[in-house]
Each structure stands twice: as C-alpha cells, then as structure tokens.
Amino acid sequence: MQLSALQNHLDELLEVARLRDYCPNGLQVEGREEVRRVLCGVTASQELLDAAVAGDYDAVLVHHGYFWRGEDGRITGMRKRRLSTLLKNDISLLAYHLPLDVHPQLGNNAQLAAIMGWVGEGRFAEQDLGWIGRPETEDMSASEIAATIAVRLGREPLLVGDGERKVKRIAWCTGGAQGYFEQAVQAGADLYVSGEISEQTTHVARESGVPYIAAGHHATERYGPMAMAIYLSDNLGLQATFLDLPNPV
C-alpha cells in the first residue's frame, strides 16, 4: 500500500480534521513510499523504533508521537537518536493522539470500555473526549471496580475517595485526563476513571464524594493502538503487529 494512501485513509477514518490537538496528527516522519509491514505501539520510544528496525517494518503507528506544543524543538540528544533511527532506516512514523482517544470503535475510550464491560451512553468535557455510561454490573462498588481493573489490565490501580460508593453511572477518559474530573462529577458520575492522578485529584474525590481511579496512563491507552493493528491487518491487508512495551505510569 502506498504511504500516501495509508495516511489519507487513516486521517479520514480517525477524523483528524475535526479535532483540535497540541501535536500534529497523521504522518510525522516520512519514510519509504510502499508500506507492507506496520508496527503499532503506545509511544514512539527508542525501544519501539529499534524493534521496528529489527523487524524490518516500513512504518510505525503510535498514540504518542513527536512535536508536542511548547516543547524544545532542537534536534539533539534523545530526539536526534529517535529521528535518526527513522530517517536512516527509511521508516515512517504515523501518530494519532486525540483522534485515537475518541474514535467510537477503535479509540482508547471505546476499547477500554470493551475490556471492562462498560456501556458508553454519553460524552462530556471539551471536544466530547470523556465518556459516561453504565458499569458492567450496577451494584458494584468503586472498590470492586478497582479490583476488576487490576485483573483485566494487569496493573494495580490507585483508588482515592469513597471506595464503598455504589456506581450506577461511571465516567472515564484514558491517559492523563484527570483534569476532567470535576466535569465528570457535573455530568452525574458516581466514579471517574482515568490514567494518571495529580495532587489536587485526591481533594476533589474527598470533597465531591465521587471516588477516582487512576488506572495507569500506559495501561489505559494500550488498546487503541492494539485495535489499530487488527484493523490494518483485517481491512487493509497489511502485516501489522502491536508491541506492548511495559510502562509503570
């Protein structure tokens, strides 16, 4: 498949033009024109790039790419090594940040819900990034949901607030979306789940009465890139593989 055709297809599929983001979405580093093999992962780390070189991949597709707004733009050190690896080996880098969070089937929020058995019934927060709906079982407490997360994601989450609260309405947004907690409370959630936690999050949970679960940034955002690998293989005839490189955050 031609790289340009792949880029256009994914940009349209993930509705890149619809979303405001703080990084460029789509093709970030241009490699060879023909794409047969794609390595998918959460972050375009050096370890993932080295795996792409070793596996003779033509392109890398990730959720966390490069060129974030406000970062130092000088090509030195770690940034030089990463870009040099891509350019020397003629490997393309495609990255989809918010578009891969919000897609209704392939996105991180949709995929996390599928893993957890949550039913999305509405959206909240800016650009409808957050999801709200029903938990797998309505009579579960926040502590019981945290225990289920630990089993299904293979990572012990951090629960703050009232663990005994029964959860009829659950809200979630993967990754570093702890900043949407108050909006989740306003939307009627009995529990909010995201990836990371900040100091002030604990106080919001205690004072609002709505518990919060930090389930891991990486752990909650593995499933979008994993779904993309399956999509590329099943729908575009590419040899696509997801590589999970563990991250404790």
Automatic annotation (TrEMBL):
A divalent metal cation 2 binds at residue 64. Coiled coil: none annotated. One of its GO terms (cellular component) is cytoplasm. One of its GO terms (molecular function) is metal ion binding. InterPro entries: DUF34/NIF3, DUF34/NIF3_sf. Pfam families: DUF34_NIF3. A divalent metal cation 1 binds at residues 63, 101, 217, 221. Keywords: Metal-binding. NCBIfam families: YbgI_SA1388. Homohexamer. Belongs to the GTP cyclohydrolase I type 2/NIF3 family. This is GTP cyclohydrolase 1 type 2 homolog. It comes from Parazoarcus communis. The lineage of its organism: Bacteria, Pseudomonadati, Pseudomonadota, Betaproteobacteria, Rhodocyclales.
